[in-house]
Write a structure and sequence with these properties.
Shape: globular
Order of helices and strands: HEEEEEEEEEEEE
Low-confidence stretches: 4-28
Number of helices: 1
Number of strands: 12
Mean pLDDT: 82
Structural class: alpha+beta
């Protein structure tokens, strides 16, 4: 009986370790870094300092439209907007006013000049009310209002 009990205790210890490891791995797959990219930097993204969107006033819970930190992503071969100077990017702001849009901007608009952190396919990125699912060479990002985009080299879909 003691041998059976010892086996059960040892098995539970192994399972607890596996469960803890799985939780750690899942947490590691979610990222909040400033600058990130898909495999081989096919799509690169970063936090832009001023993107049109909506934040909620924490005191009154009133929506505040304005320029807030948002997401800015690029991929080779995406179309250029009709106006602007710089490289074509997709920007996504926060909340209801934060619709995805194609813009000509500068990487100087990013809050960090740090290197891009490569996120593994199947991982996610989340920050400022914006969530992204990362694939090998594409991303799909949405904000809390359901606005967003899908981006890969040569293709962009805004919704």
């Amino acid at each position: 009986m003691r041998a059976v009990l010892a086996t059960i205790v040892a098995t539970c210890a192994v399972l607890a370790t596996c469960a803890t490891g799985a939780a750690t791995l899942a947490a590691a797959n979610a990222s909040h870094v400033d600058n990130w990219a898909t495999h081989g930097e096919k799509v690169v993204c970063g936090i832009a300092e001023k993107v049109w969107g909506t934040r909620v006033d924490p005191g009154t819970m009133a929506p505040l439209n304005g320029y807030w930190p948002g997401l800015q992503c690029a991929a080779a071969g995406i179309p250029r907007p009709r106006q602007g100077v710089g490289d074509p990017f997709v920007q996504l702001g926060q909340g209801q006013a934060g619709r995805a849009r194609l813009v000509d901007e500068s990487q100087d608009d990013l809050v960090s000049s740090g290197r891009y952190v490569e996120l593994a396919p199947g991982s996610s990125w989340s920050r400022d009310g914006i969530d992204c699912a990362v694939a090998r060479s594409s991303v799909r990002c949405t904000n809390s209002a359901g606005h967003g985009f899908t981006l890969s080299p040569g293709h962009v879909h805004l919704f």
